[in-house]
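Why does residue order matter? Because the sequence determines the fold. Keep that principle in mind as you read this record.
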Amino acid sequence: MDAEVVLRRALDAARHLADPEPPWFDLLDGVRQVVGGDSASFIMVDGQGALLGLEQCRIDPKAERDYVEHFAAHDIVTPATLGANEGSWFDTQEAFTPEQLSRSSYYVDFMLHHRMPRMLTFIAEQGPLRRAGLSVQRGSADGRVRRHLESQPVRALTDAVVQSLVRRRAQAQHWLDTVEAALGAFDEAVCVVDRR
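Structure:
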């Protein structure tokens, strides 16, 4: 498919991240194609690194299950990106030596086992209560990608993602403020439960 068409579709999907039902698959598949990889995921963790959300595209369901049930707690990217600048890229091949990776159960038992020896992660949100990353997984650890990650098409796509996530957070905060104001009139303790 034409690279310009792929980018346009991915940008359109990114603009809809603030929708009630975001087009995660379309966005992640577009990111996967624009960046260049075999699969893509969006992972959100809380301030302590506990998994809050996971969206994925073209990842083996067994890999997703293994991640959620066990490996999320051992993810090497989450602690390594703590404090990284929002909007920056993290490359496991640049960040870790081969010796560090070979000693990591996450790398050996998860990344290699599921044929994704290299992860490129865009820091989409970085805060004390919540962090989020957009990752592209590659079946090959070969080649340098830094120049491509800083290219105009990739930057346009990641900028659109960040802007939509900011809108999504603002909408969620507005909703919470509205609910708090409406329920505050009862002068009672109130528990709000979402549909999940």
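The chain is about 45% helix and 20% strand.
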